Amino acid sequence: MGALLWLLIPLFAGLAASAWAWGTGRHNPGMPDHDTWEDLDRYQRLRSALTTGEHATTARVG
Asked: What is the structure's pLDDT at 11?
């Protein structure tokens, strides 16, 4: 019976996590963003900025 009581700990942890997620979640979410081309452009700009090598030279001091 003592071993079964240890199963209550994950059960209560799961219930607490569920209650926390429900309490902090958005109850009225907006429409989903379906602007795929804008997301692709943003990704390509980020990718090109990270591959230029400039980010490595600005971190060097002296």
From this structure: 94
Supply the DSSP symbol for 60. Answer: -
Does residue 55 contact residue 49 with C-beta atoms inside 8 Å? yes
How would residue 56 be classed by pLDDT, with cut points 50, 70 and 90?
low
Q: What's the Cα-to-Cα distance from 14 to each of 9, 10, 23, rounded to whole Å?
A: 9, 6, 14
> Mean pLDDT across the chain, nearest whole number?
79
CA distances from 61 to 5, 9, 53, 54, 55 (A): 57, 51, 16, 14, 13
